[in-house]
Amino acid sequence: MGQELHAHTFEPYVGTLFRVTTQFGDMFDATLAGVDRLSTSPRWEQFAVLFHGPADPRHPQGICRFEHDALGEFELFITPIVGSDSERTVYEACFNRPA
């Protein structure tokens, strides 16, 4: 993917499936659960994207390759967060960048 990732890049794809490959070569499917726009200013864009993956195995934080039919391929640093349970693992990628 040649374009930069912004909140508005992800928002149309909430509820869609992404194929994730971890830094260890493990693969799993994750659904984009939401885009949280955080504090914004004319100079900075801050947002987080949340993905729901399978409960087991729960993958550690790290850089993962994401593939999506419309967005193509890109890498994100994701972290499993609170909200994970016996049915899913919630992963978060945070962005804090110049607008």
Distance between the termini: 19 Å
N-to-C order of helices and strands: HEEEEEE
Radius of gyration: 13 Å
Largest sheet data: 6 strands, antiparallel, barrel
Q: In which order are the strands of the major sheet placed?
A: 1-2-3-6-5-4
Q: What is the domain tally?
A: 1
Percent of residues in beta strands? over 45%
User: pLDDT average, as an integer?
Assistant: 93
Q: Which parts are unreliable, with pLDDT below 50 for 5 consecutive residues or more? A: none
In DSSP terms, counting alpha (H) and pi (I) runs of 4 or more, how many helices? Answer: 1
Shape: globular
Percentage of residues in helical conformation? under 10%
Number of strands: 6
Structural class call reads: mainly beta
Structure, briefly:
The radius of gyration is 13 Å and the shape is globular.
Description:
- By secondary structure, the chain is mostly beta strands.
- It is 4% helix and 53% strand.
- It has one helix at residues 7-10; strands at residues 17-21, 27-37, 44-53, 62-68, 72-80, 89-98.
- A 6-stranded antiparallel β-barrel has the order 1-2-3-6-5-4.
- Strand 2 (27-37) and strand 3 form a beta hairpin.
- It is globular and about 40 Å long.
- 18% of the residues are buried.
- The model has no long low-confidence stretch (mean pLDDT 93).
